Structure to design on (496 residues):
């Protein structure tokens, strides 16, 4: 053995990003995924004549994907057709007003003016403020493994450290958004961005106002054919580079001698490797895969998981001209919705409903007279006492009734259906308490408390994915895989 063997746990995007980079750097990589196919929370299903993405539906920061292809020596545009989405999202407010949000500044200002002329100028100021947060934080918080002291203390980071007061960490997202916008509908719209990493706008620090800049400043995208095409493309690249992918193969244990990892156990047998890159949820991995570190597990279990969700996939035999590719039907009281989710950890009475219909852009995803609805509700992470089997039946009728009230009566038009609850997310992707973005960012210190990309307890063990730095969402998990792979490569080089 030439000391360059790596076992990668899980076939999610963080793991794939790490596996591809390591293979490109000359490591021999074996990737183990417990499910029948790779992709993790980026997944797809076909039901009858309808095709659905079952997880991620909106792509931001496409440059992160381009960089991964470049690093691997491939050209992204040969594999993936990224389509800018306009409007990025159609918002339906509880007073029956509707607004199309767009990355096109003129269109967006016009749409805001229809709701509130006073807030047009506020939008300009808000975008500048969000861009400033991006400029100050992106390099350190998104592109640097911040738990690595030596990497943090670089001359190019000093300027950022001195500007940290500009990132608005002491107010919540909601407090800050409310200072810019006078119209409560716009406050609700911009509050929503905290949910992009699974957090509560009424608790999360206003630093998360970076997210609207990422969406409106850099754009929101769809991948022609469906978001799952990203996984197909990365699988092709990984295989071309020699990554051996083992699906339907659960890693049962991360083997170690108390100091350093020595491989993984699959099917009762040890696969010896020099490094392990864990792309499975790191909290669950400490609970279930790493023996002998109970204290570490207990500490990690104190981190608050992110939002979970309930998803309805509905093949609807009807056409709705009033719906766009992405749609949000807001609840009437956002504060109450998030209190019920995060404080009471229960299903919200009046959930905000997100609907993505990819056949608005990809006509082949549904029959000519139909639409493929992916419907997502924010839900609490799993705690004892919740009853998801009952809740999914109850929420189905709550959602269908609310849709009917706002003019989309699809009750008798649903031809095919599949429902996912937080229990399903936990089961399918082994995510911590069914969370869909890893750890929440509901406190000012979460960015630092989130798990590092290098294990604190075992040498030669590294982590990627939504539960570790820099957090959840497609671009960030791809960056986590980059950080973990670079740490492995550097550690390996230093030992030669
Ligand atoms: C409903 C939903 C909507 C979302 N919407 C968006 C969106 O619009 N935009 C966006 O950017 N992001 C979105 N996200 C988040 C995004 O999909 C995730 O952050 C990202 O895909 C997670 O990647 P990951 O690397 O953490 O791996 P995961 O996707 O969590 O995959 C981990 C993999 O590891 C496997 N695994 C676990 N344990 C083991 C083991 N012991 N052995 C072998 N394999 C194992 C699991 O089966 C799984 O396949 C959404 C997620 C969900 C669920």
């Amino acid at each position: 053995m030439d000391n360059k063997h790596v076992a990668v746990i899980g076939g999610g995007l963080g793991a794939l990003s790490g596996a591809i980079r390591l293979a490109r750097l000359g490591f021999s990589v074996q990737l183990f995924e417990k499910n029948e196919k790779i992709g993790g929370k980026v997944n797809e299903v076909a039901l009858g004549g309808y095709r659905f993405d079952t997880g991620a539906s909106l792509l931001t920061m496409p440059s992160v994907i381009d960089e991964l292809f470049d690093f691997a020596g491939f050209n992204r545009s040969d594999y993936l057709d990224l389509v800018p989405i306009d409007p990025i999202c159609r918002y339906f407010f509880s007073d029956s007003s509707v607004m199309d949000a767009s990355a096109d500044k003129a269109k967006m200002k016009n749409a805001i003016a229809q709701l509130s002329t006073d807030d047009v100028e506020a939008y300009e100021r808000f975008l500048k403020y969000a861009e400033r947060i991006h400029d100050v934080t992106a390099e350190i918080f998104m592109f640097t493994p911040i738990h690595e002291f030596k990497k943090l203390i670089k001359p190019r980071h000093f300027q950022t450290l001195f500007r940290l007061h500009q990132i608005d960490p002491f107010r919540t997202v909601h407090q800050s958004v409310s200072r810019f916008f006078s119209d409560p509908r716009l406050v609700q719209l911009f509050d929503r961005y905290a949910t992009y990493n699974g957090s509560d706008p009424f608790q999360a620090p206003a630093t998360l106002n970076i997210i609207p800049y990422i969406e409106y400043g850099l754009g929101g995208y769809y991948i022609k054919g469906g978001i799952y095409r990203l996984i197909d493309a990365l699988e092709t690249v990984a295989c071309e580079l020699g990554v051996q992918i083992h699906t339907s193969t659960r890693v049962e244990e991360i083997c170690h001698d108390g100091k350093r990892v020595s491989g993984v156990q699959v099917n009762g047998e040890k696969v010896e490797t020099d490094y392990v890159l864990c792309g499975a949820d790191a909290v669950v991995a400490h609970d279930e895969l790493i023996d002998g570190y109970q204290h570490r597990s207990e500490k990690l279990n104190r981190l608050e998981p992110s939002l979970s969700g309930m998803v309805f996939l509905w093949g609807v035999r009807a056409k709705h001209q009033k719906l766009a590719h992405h749609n949000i039907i807001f609840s009437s009281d956002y504060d109450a919705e998030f209190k019920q989710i995060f404080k009471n950890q229960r299903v919200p009475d009046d959930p905000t409903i997100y609907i993505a219909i990819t056949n608005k852009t990809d006509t082949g995803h549904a029959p000519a007279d139909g639409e493929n609805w992916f419907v997502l509700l924010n839900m609490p992470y799993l705690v004892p006492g919740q009853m998801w089997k009952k809740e999914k039946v109850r929420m189905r009728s709550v959602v269908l009734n609310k849709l009917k009230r706002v003019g989309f009566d699809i009750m008798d038009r649903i031809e095919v259906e599949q429902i996912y609850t937080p229990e399903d997310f936990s089961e399918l992707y082994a995510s911590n308490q069914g969370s869909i973005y890893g750890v929440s960012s509901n406190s000012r210190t979460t960015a630092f408390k989130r798990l590092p990309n290098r294990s604190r307890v075992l040498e030669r063990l590294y982590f990627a994915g939504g539960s570790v730095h820099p957090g959840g969402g497609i671009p960030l998990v791809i960056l986590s895989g980059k950080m973990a792979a670079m740490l492995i490569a550097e550690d390996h080089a230093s030992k030669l």
Q: What stands out?
A: Residues 185 and 488 are 47 Å apart (CA to CA).
